[in-house]
Design goal:
single chain, alpha+beta, Glutamine Phosphoribosylpyrophosphate, subunit 1, domain 1, Rossmann fold, six-stranded antiparallel β-sheet, 26 helices, globular
Length: 635
């Protein structure tokens, strides 16, 4: 696990000494991703200078896995970030063909496989990765990203240079001036609270989409973005499969995935929240290991957010060495600025804050942690997945005018003034989720501002009418209706842009590697061939996964409800963050900024601060944007 950087400069007066200093500088900016080691490669040819660098957090092959790694004839060179979980299997295949290895690292396996198979080798990799390979034979550079987008990869081409990096800071730092804000990125952020690939907050800087690679031609200084593989969507449904057969296969695949993701030459444990996914991962790891495993959880002093009783039950069941940390806003205050700024662009998923703290505490004990991330996306575990069925039934019975009347009449009774996410909050959110125009799912995933609300808060010149157009075109899903539709949208948008970004940045800021066994390409593909009612049976979410493992837990445990891994930021905004928030709504600053409608934003924030309304999600989205903006543009 580490971070990578690179650039290709085709400015004629660029010399290799400057290039060396520049790639070292890019590496230093991501020191936290790999404090154990670093490496650089710089070479000047007839038309350009190529530089590649990496920082390393040593997990596998601690002593001989130093990068960059070269082919025996020195015609290929690679820098790599991530883990390849099937590298031993691939290595054995190559050894049988007489291939000689100089290290025990998975990095060299990628290079040797590419040397034999070319870019088709990328399809063989089971893991999380971002890597770049310089192929002198073809005079090309190939830069690839994994199936789900677990490892980040940004890129840009400007002023005679093509650059790529694991984190935005390594690219932006080399701009002569701060790049402009990208309107699509801005609109997506305010809708979603994060920015999914291929967009970033900056014009001209992009994220490589998952399971894609960049082919850069050094002869012409041009590049293309290609798919590693184009899976069929939806996969062909196997209507003949028996439920018991599916349960056995799922249990086997999940157990195998946990085993493959537990390969490590350093101490390893699990994040254990007490929910279905983390409990199953922790169980499987405890069954694989011969000694008690290490488990870690975080709770809140605010009881409506605290669920440590569930993690304690599982820890006792599997006999783990359990570590529990209880936090409040004072624990966050010290690190809040560092946490939010490390995303390098606005990011408003409040669960990043406890994720950072549990990562920080976990790193004191282990270097690798398995997580339950991806279980909801793979097996259909979100409440929002009910809405396909619920929306059809409701809108088929209740005419739109009557629904509008219900919303208006219920508004005074559903008014929420604090951040406790109780029944009134959930009923209000449910009523606001119903949609009569076929696009309800796009508003459901808009955790910040819905499309209609943005008109009230964003100046017209900054609005984009259809920020989701690219994703609709890519999937062919304009009006999502089925669970398969919802899961595909979430994989491309929510998983890549939110969940995986949150875990990668907060864990790597603490030099902790996180691995997600549910994010397994073969598991995803198998589950997508199953009838939807195996996943969402009536109102029972993740039915198949729970059925597969229910015998391992006390009766009814996997059916217990669990809230999300959020943080009470609504309260914090009214207390410890209040003065900073009020600074961001200064009318002169807002007008100078030229992004928001000043009067509307000021009222939104004032209503929240006064307690007359709970505007937590919108105000936190605004706050995180302003914190990023004022840190970058120094206004």
């Amino acid at each position: 696990m580490c971070g990578i950087n690179g650039f290709i400069s085709y400015i004629t007066n660029k010399n290799s000494k400057n290039a060396l200093n520049e790639i070292i500088s890019m590496n230093n900016l991501i020191y936290h991703r790999g404090p154990d080691d670093d490496g650089v490669f710089v070479e000047k040819n007839e038309s350009s200078t190529i530089a590649m660098g990496m920082r390393r957090l040593s997990i596998i092959d601690l002593h001989s896995g130093k990068q960059p790694i070269f082919s025996d004839d020195k015609q290929l060179v690679i820098v790599f970030n991530g883990e390849i979980y099937n590298y031993l299997e691939l290595k054995e295949e190559l050894l049988k063909e007489g291939v000689v290895f100089n290290t025990n690292s998975d990095t060299e396996v990628i290079l040797k496989l590419y040397e034999r198979d070319g870019i088709s080798a990328f399809e063989r990799l089971d893991g999380m990765f971002a890597f770049s390979i310089y192929d002198k034979r073809l005079n090309k550079v190939f830069i690839a990203r994994d199936f789900f987008g677990e490892k980040p990869l940004y890129y840009t081409q400007f002023e005679g240079k093509f650059s790529w990096a694991s984190e935005l800071k390594s690219i932006v730092n080399n701009f002569g001036s701060k790049p402009k804000i990208d309107k699509a990125g801005l609109n997506l952020y305010l809708r979603l609270t994060y920015i999914p690939a291929p967009y970033s907050i900056y014009e001209g800087i992009f994220k490589l989409t998952p399971y894609s690679y960049i082919a850069y031609d050094l002869a012409t200084n041009t590049y293309s973005v290609e798919s590693i593989e184009e899976p069929q969507y939806p996969e062909k449904i196997n209507a003949d499969i028996d439920l018991n057969e599916a349960k056995k296969e799922v249990k086997n695949l999940v157990s195998q995935s946990v085993t493959s993701r537990s390969i490590s030459d350093v101490p390893l444990g699990t994040f254990l929240s007490g929910g279905v996914d983390s409990s199953i991962v922790s169980l499987c790891l405890s069954q694989y290991k011969s000694s008690p495993i290490e488990t870690f959880s975080v709770g809140f002093k605010k009881k409506s957010y605290d669920e440590t009783d569930k993690s304690q039950l599982v820890a006792k069941l599997i006999k783990s060495n359990h570590h529990e940390f209880v936090i409040d806003d004072r624990d966050i205050e010290e690190d809040l600025h560092q946490i939010l700024n490390n995303f390098d662009e606005p990011f408003a998923d409040s669960s990043a804050l406890p994720t950072y703290l549990v990562s920080k505490k976990t790193r004191e004990h282990v270097t690798v942690a398995l997580t339950g991330d991806g279980g909801d996306e793979v097996f259909g575990g979100y409440n929002k997945y009910y809405m396909g069925k619920f929306n059809r039934r409701y809108t088929g019975v209740v005419p739109k005018p009557i629904h509008s009347a219900i919303q208006n009449l219920s508004r005074p009774f559903l008014k929420v003034s604090n951040d406790n996410r109780g029944k009134r909050y959930r009923i209000k959110r449910l009523l606001n989720s119903f949609d009569y125009d076929g696009g309800f799912y796009w508003d459901i995933i808009s955790l910040g501002f819905t499309g209609g609300e943005l008109n009230d808060y964003l100046l017209p010149e900054n609005r984009i009418i259809e920020p989701f157009k690219l994703y609709k075109d890519k999937t062919g899903i304009t009006e999502p209706k089925s669970l398969t539709d919802f899961k595909l949208i979430d994989r491309l948008i929510s998983l890549e842009g939110d969940m995986l970004v949150k875990v990668d940045r907060t864990s790597m800021l603490n030099s902790l590697e996180c691995r997600a066994p549910f994010l397994n390409k073969e598991l995803w593909k198998f589950v997508n061939t199953l009838p939807e009612n195996f996943l969402l049976k009536g109102w029972n979410k993740k039915f198949l996964l729970k059925e597969a493992f229910k015998d391992e837990f006390p009766d009814g445990f996997l059916e217990k409800s669990k809230s999300g891994f959020g943080a009470p930021v609504g309260d914090w905004l009214r207390n410890s963050l209040k003065n900073e928030l009020k600074y961001y709504i200064d009318i002169n600053k807002l007008k100078k900024q030229g992004i928001f409608k000043a009067d509307s934003i000021i009222k939104l924030v004032d209503d929240h601060l006064s307690g007359s309304a709970d505007n937590t999600f919108k105000v936190w989205t605004f706050y995180c944007f302003q914190k990023w903006y004022h840190g970058i543009y120094k206004t």
